[in-house]
Amino acid sequence: MGEGSDLEIIKKRMLLEMQRKMLEKELKKAEPDYYSIFLKYLTDDGRIMFEKAVEQYSDTAKKIGEKLGKLFYSGRLREKLNAEAVYWIFYEIGLPIRLETKIVYKKGREYKSISDVLKEE
């Protein structure tokens, strides 16, 4: 074995490594963005509920969105998800979405929060 054959082996290794890296890049480009696919299948109120989930469980919620996006992409899920469906998905996996709730008292055309009504009495 001479220097020429060693040089050829090194060149071939480098060429193979470059080809492998280029193939990896092409495969990454070919894979769709499942998260954006998932977002397309949310109704307006479903999107709001999912945003609340992202606020509370950021990385986990995004991973769940990607997994659901894969299901939509493969055709296993077809219908749009509303707020109730998004809430129950997170609830079922043990991540309930906490929502701000208010009790409102209506008298005639006037709306008051229950705390304001109790303060008046």
Set down the secondary structure blueprint.
Blueprint: H1 3-30, H2 34-40, H3 44-74, H4 83-92, E1 104-107, E2 110-113, H5 114-120
Helix pairs in contact: 2-3, 3-4
Describe this structure in words.
The structure is a single chain. With 121 residues, the protein is mainly α. The chain folds into 2 domains: 1-31; 32-120, Helicase, Ruva Protein, domain 3 (Orthogonal Bundle), CATH 1.10.8. Helix content is 69%, strand content 7%. The protein contains 5 helices and 2 strands; from the N terminus they run ααααββα. It has helices at residues 3-30, 34-40, 44-74, 83-92, 114-120; strands at 104-107, 110-113. It has a two-stranded antiparallel ribbon. The longest helix has 31 residues, at 44-74. It is elongated, with a radius of gyration of 27 Å. The termini are far apart. 12% of the residues are buried. The model has no long low-confidence stretch (mean pLDDT 90).
Estimated radius of gyration = 27 Å
Poorly predicted parts = none
Instruction: Give the total of domains.
Output: 2
Q: Helix/strand/pairing class, anyone? A: mainly alpha
Beta-strand portion reads 5-15%
| Morphology call | elongated
**Overall mean pLDDT:** 90
Level-2 CATH architecture of the largest domain = Orthogonal Bundle
Main sheet properties: 2 strands, antiparallel
Strand order of the largest sheet: 1-2
CATH names the topology of the largest domain as Helicase, Ruva Protein, domain 3
The CATH class name of the largest domain reads: Mainly Alpha
